[in-house]
Design a protein that fits this description.
This protein is α/β, with parallel strands linked by helices and about 400 residues long. The chain is built from 13 helices and 15 strands. The protein is globular, with a radius of gyration of 21 Å. The structure holds pyridoxal-5'-phosphate (PLP).
Length: about 400
């Protein structure tokens, strides 16, 4: 590997929500922010931009849009044109904007649970109802995967279902959907005149031999009914720079999205645009090594849980750096999130906030140097051993 991800760089006291939310004796393994510095070309581009000393209003980022189009063509054979790209300061605001832009107050937004929490809150914030279909857990020994109950999904559509919100790859369960599954979901949506919002923010964080298919790349009819959300922020660890984008092939949907943000949503900041351009243009070798490192971290975690915490079950994610741990049969007293925080001094994400099927689970972020991952897992193992006597 040309790049090393083993170095532990102190982040406490740097204004990081991940590191500064909890006391100093707690190891944070929660929010989706990796403990790796961004790739060197990104740092260099930012330094050059800062050295220039001017931070006026940015012009439309044509060059970045071209880089994104080239990337979509190269990776997915997906023909995207620059005018189909709208830059966004955050994909959480993107999710909310899509909820606002599609349908009318009182309409329904359909999503799958467990879900990234803003998927559950955005519909209500935009005066929509949130309908949910729970993914079905499949237990195999100590590992856990999820399947989709197609009958339940089909039954959940009704005449006011205007939007289907899909995280692909899925957060928190780390599933990568194959083209046939995506096609079937899209067909259901087309049949019910339901717009699809495909949040593909995790699409570059592929583990092992996984391959991502953008839902809108499946065929032009599906593309015409889909808003795709993407960003370099998870891939290259830039979430604090606030730069994402929507790809919208349908001009009417694009207009609705623009209207929903008019006067409220700011343009992407200059440094976010600079970082995104450098990351997409020159970050690929770093990303290749990152994927290998994250894959090895995932495998380390799965082995560790099997050997040292057989009371738990874990997903074996095909994408993301997030493991979803089932603590329901571990005999822990009360909420697992509180148990790990108080007894192991490890801050995880509380599964209960991911909607139906999340209680009794925690989400663990393994996007960190292996030594930190081992420290966190060891603390968890010891706390479990002590609690179970
Ligand atoms: C599925 C998904 N969408 C959106 C986001 C956040 O995007 P942003 O930081 O651009 O608001 C995350 C962050 O974890 C995510 O997992």
């Amino acid at each position: 590997m040309a790049f090393s991800f083993d170095q532990v760089v102190p982040r406490r006291g740097t204004g990081s929500v991940k590191w500064d939310l909890y006391p100093a004796d707690v190891l944070p393994m929660w929010v989706a922010d990796m403990d790796f510095a961004s790739p060197e070309p990104v740092l260099q581009a930012l330094q050059t931009r800062v050295a220039h000393g001017f931070f006026g209003y940015p012009a439309h980022a044509h060059q970045l849009a071209e880089v994104i189009c080239e990337r979509m063509a190269r990776l997915y054979n997906w023909p995207v044109t620059p005018e189909q790209i709208s830059f966004l300061p955050s994909l959480v605001s993107g999710i909310n904007l899509v909820c606002r832009a599609v349908g009318a107050p009182g309409d329904s937004v359909l999503t799958l649970t467990p879900a990234y929490p803003p998927f559950l809150s955005a519909p209500g914030l935009q005066q929509r109802q949130c309908d949910m279909v729970a993914l079905t857990p499949v237990v195999q020994g100590q590992t856990l995967s999820y399947t989709l109950d197609w009958d339940a999904l089909e039954a959940a559509f009704h005449e006011r279902t205007r939007l289907f919100l899909l995280a692909s790859p899925q957060n928190p369960v780390g599933a990568v959907y194959d083209p046939a599954t995506l096609h079937r979901m899209a067909e259901l949506c087309l049949r019910h005149q339901t717009v699809i919002c495909a949040d593909e923010i995790h699409c570059d964080l592929l583990l092992g031999a996984s391959r991502h298919t953008p839902l809108a790349a499946l065929d032009p009819e599906i593309a015409a009914q889909t808003i795709t959300l993407m960003a370099p922020s998870k891939t290259f660890n830039l979430p604090g720079l606030g730069c994402g984008f929507a790809i919208v092939g349908n001009p009417d949907l694009r207009k609705a999205l623009e209207q929903a943000q008019a006067g409220i949503v700011p343009h992407v900041n200059t440094l976010g645009l600079v970082a995104a351009q450098a990351a997409f243009a020159s970050g690929e070798p770093w990303l290749t090594d990152l994927r290998a490192y994250l894959t090895a971290n995932r495998d380390f975690l799965v082995r560790y849980v099997a050997e040292h915490m057989p009371q738990l079950r874990t997903t074996v994610p095909d994408a993301t750096y997030l493991a979803w741990l089932d603590c329901r049969e571990a005999g822990l007293p009360g909420s697992p999130y509180k148990f790990w925080l108080e007894q192991a001094k490890v801050a995880l994400s509380d599964g209960a906030v991911f909607g139906a099927g999340g209680a009794g689970f925690v989400r663990l972020n393994f996007g960190c140097p292996r030594s930190l991952l081992e420290t966190g897992l060891t603390r968890m193992r010891d706390a479990l051993a002590q609690a179970l006597g």
